[in-house]
Structures are given as C-alpha cells and as structure tokens.
Design a protein that fits this description.
This protein is an all-alpha fold. It has a domain of 47 residues. Helices cover 50% and strands 0% of the residues. The chain contains three helices and no strands. The longest helix has 25 residues. It is elongated and about 70 Å long.
C-alpha cells in the first residue's frame, strides 16, 4: 500500500473511518429509559410468550409452557440491547 500526502483542505471533506463515533444526544428524561423498557418488555413478553406457546404446543399448552415461553421472550427482548455493533436493534 502506498501512502499519499493530502492537503489540509482535502482532509476537511473526509468523513467516517475507524475513529468515528455516533453523536450522543442528551435526554432530560433518560432516567425513565430503564423503567420504560422494563414495562414494555414485561407486557410484550406476556403477549409474545403466550402466542409462542400457542404456536409451539397448540391445544396441549400448559401454564408452565406459557411461563417458559414468556421468560424466553423476555430474554430475547432484553438481548436486543446487547446486539453486536452494526446489527439493527428493533427493540430500542
């Protein structure tokens, strides 16, 4: 690889690169993020977990099956906050 000299005015138009960081915005209600996500994940895991259990077990679904499916759905939703960089996060 060959090095090329660039003038300062050429560098002014360069964007991106390894050192680029996403701009952080200050949220005055940021302290509500945790409780809000917890509440949303709770209700979403109940609804989604019940639908998952119905799809997996059909008419033979039990309360324990629903509880397991709800717990799995809650883990899935919470895991959405820990996706690798570059993967779209659909859950916030």
């Amino acid at each position: 690889m060959q090095r090329t000299e660039l003038a300062p005015d050429e560098l002014a138009g360069v964007h991106g690169g390894a050192g680029t960081h996403r701009e952080q915005h200050w949220n005055p209600l940021g302290f509500l993020d945790g409780p809000y996500k917890s509440l949303v994940f709770h209700f979403a895991s109940e609804v989604g977990g019940n639908k998952l259990a119905d799809q997996m077990y059909g008419r033979n679904v039990t309360g324990a099956d629903r509880a397991r499916a709800q717990a799995a759905m809650k883990q899935f939703l919470a895991g959405g906050n820990k996706l690798p960089k570059g993967v779209p996060n659909l859950f916030g």
